[in-house]
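### Sample
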Amino acid sequence: MEKLIFTLFLSFLLGTASYSQSKTKIACIGDSITEGPGRENPASFPLQLDEILGSTYEVKNFGVSGRTLLKKGDFPFWEEPQFEEAKAFAADIVLIKLGTNDTKPQNWKFKDDFKKDYLDLIQEMKSSMSKNGKIYIVNPVPVFQDNFNISARVMDEELRPLLIEIAEEAGIEIMDFYAPLLPYADLFPDGIHPNPEGLTLMAEALASKISQ
């Protein structure tokens, strides 16, 4: 009887400890490629990432279609409720995947502000995280075809090199969606947005990096 009581008590303690362990929270900030078919849609790459990483992680999708990193862009992420929601989430890891819509002519005319605005966003996110929290810049997926006024030339020749400068200045790492997706132009029906298979490749690429 005493052995049974001890076993039950031990099980209770182990269960309580397991339950009390906090999950590693990941916030995904981005545009339509992050939002995917919907922020709560399991096909979006953030929710696929959540599924791959398992029960010790909690991944939230804060993507908003058409949004820019630039504060003076036509639709700045800064002005969306998801900006404040991402900060309130107090993530352990923040993935920033913005920039694709910034290559549009009406936005890139403010390109001189891009580095400062990006560094400002990094600081805003850091302010809501623990001192051990990590922020990653995500190098966006390839632009296989100019569409929706998005420019492949601006992306590859101007914006991507800026991301490297920003990462070095901020002392943070870059996670890459460019190289892993470059062989898969057929998964981008409009040249810009990945189909569900492409979103899965994105989630797998991130999961591989994070699990290391």
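The chain has one domain: 23-211. This sample (Sialate O-acetylesterase) is used throughout the tutorial notebook.
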